[in-house]
Design goal:
mainly alpha, 2 domains, 9 helices
């Protein structure tokens, strides 16, 4: 940990992660602020259909980090998971651009591209969002008094990204066309990816960054982490299906809740009676 460089009293890696997350949130909120308008105005969805699609997308966005965090902890390492997530999110935004370019004369194609784009954003967000804040925590020792203020600074970046998205992206999308708004959000994601990769030396001493030993194990023609990367692409059409057939969402989220609750209680039991009781209370 002593190798971590300091900037303004905090590890230098904090600002790299600050700007990476700021641009990722710019991407996420930029797409979200335009989504309902795009569904209603370009794809001619009714308000109820648009609300169902938006709700399914939001539910999956918040559920995906459960899987993304687990994959990073056991196999991918935090850095690779974030890079994979950033690439998938950028692809998702540019698929949305393709959907917006189609316009009302090609609604079926536009809707297909939009749903695949949303699927890529969901999977990418699961890998990115779950792990970048974990790296922030690992920049500090557990008892470091700067830890709380470091997270405060980090979350300021989130708020700035959200503010820029809901003003700039919304204005561009409504004034010049949805494709330009989605494209601007995608450029923001590429900026976040560039900052995270180019500044990797600033947070290189944080533990848990690298692909794990389990991830490097050979499993047939590919290593485990490579299979997970391929599998993440297969999750995109699965998300497409869940968004378009959103009656399944209730069953999926119920099952996910049971899985997460069981995992938390099991982890608490391993740590002793105090943590067991805390996890049960949390659930």
């Amino acid at each position: 940990m002593a190798q971590l460089k300091l900037a303004a009293g905090h590890p230098q890696g904090l600002m790299t992660l600050f700007f990476s997350e700021m641009w990722e949130r710019f991407c996420y909120y930029g797409m979200r602020v335009l989504l309902t308008l795009f569904l209603v105005k370009s794809l001619l969805k009714g308000d109820s259909d648009a609300a169902l699609i938006y709700g399914a997308y939001t539910a999956l966005i918040y559920a995906a980090p459960v899987l993304g965090g687990k994959m990073a902890d056991q196999y991918l390492g935090y850095r690779y998971a974030i890079l994979l997530g950033a690439v998938l999110m950028a692809i998702g935004e540019f698929l949305m651009v393709g959907g917006a370019i189609g316009g009302p004369d090609a609604i079926a194609t536009s809707e297909m591209l939009m749903l695949f784009g949303m699927g890529a954003l969901i999977v990418g967000n699961g890998f990115f969002k779950a792990n970048i804040s974990t790296i922030v925590g690992k920049l500090y020792e557990d008892n470091d008094p700067r830890r709380d203020s470091g997270f405060t600074i980090f979350y300021i970046g989130i708020n700035i990204g959200a503010l820029l998205a809901t003003t700039v992206v919304a204005f561009v999308g409504e004034t010049y066309g949805f494709e330009y708004g989605f494209g601007l959000a995608g450029i923001g994601m590429l900026a976040g990816l560039f900052i995270f990769w180019s500044g990797r030396a600033n947070y290189a001493a944080a533990p848990g960054l690298d692909i794990t030993e389990e991830g490097h194990k050979q499993a047939g023609p590919l290593k485990v982490y490579q299979w997970i990367s391929v599998g993440s692409l297969a999750l995109i059409p699965a998300c497409y299906f869940l968004i378009s057939q959103n009656d399944w969402m209730t069953y999926l989220l119920t099952g996910l809740f049971v899985l997460v609750a069981a995992s938390l209680v099991r982890a608490g039991i391993k740590e002793g009676p105090m943590w067991r009781d805390r996890m049960i209370a949390l659930v």
